Amino acid sequence: MLFTKTRREAPSDEQSKNAVLLIRAGYIHKEIAGVYSYLPLGLRVLNNIIGIIREEMNTLGGQEVFLTTLQDPNKWKTSGRWDDDVIDIWFKTKLKNGGPLGLANTHEEAITSLMSEHIASYKDLPRYVYQFQNKFRNETRAKSGIMRTREFIMKDLYSFSADKAQHEEFYERATQAYERIFSRVDIGERTYRTFASGGSFSKYSHEFQTLCDAGEDTIFFDKEKKLAINKEVYNDEDVYKTAGVHKENLNEARAAEVGNIFNLGTKFSEVLGLHYTNERGEQVPVYMGSYGIGPARLMGVIAEIFSDDKGLVWPEAIAPFDVHLVSLAGNNERIREYADLLYEEMVTKGISVLYDDRNVRAGEKFTDSDLLGIPRRIIIGKDAVDTEMIEIVNRATGETMRITREAVLALARDDKKNNL
RNA sequence: CGGGGUGUAGUGUAGUGGUAGCACGAGUCCUUUGGGAGGAUUUAUCCCGAGUUCGAAUCUCGGCACCCCGACCA
Question: Of A50, A54, A196, A419, which residue is the least packed, with the fewest Cβ within 10 Å?
Answer without folding.
Answer: A419
